[in-house]
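Researcher: Sit down with what I've pasted below and flag anything odd:
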Amino acid sequence: MTSYGDDATVREILTDTGDTWAVVGLSTNTARAAYGVARVLQRYGKRVVPVHPKAETVLGEQGYASLAEIPFQVDVVDVFVHSALAGEVADEAVEVGAKAVWFQLGVVDEAAYARTREAGLAMVMDKCPAIEIPLLD
């Protein structure tokens, strides 16, 4: 299996890229993986910005319906949507000036990965930051 995000890139995104993470697909549904991952990111000092059509406030942070609506810089865009929709989110991340894109476990779009890397962003695909971040210690 091809790896889309070597250990150095994973470490760079988690430690050096910035602490404002837009989590696309994050809602108030505590049973969803996005919610659990967002809580882990918060425990490690990340600001989590929910991005979901409902624009709900989640884990104490104001939500937005899209990346374009966030009125401040986001460093990393963490993508919890189906692979068929993920490429569009990656393109939006480039447009809003994010520094990195992270596709969650099971989210794979090789063309989007290539486009995002070509645009100069760090990118990890088919991995989970909540699994990776404790390994950095």
About this structure: The helical segments are 7-15, 33-43, 83-95, 110-118, 129-132.
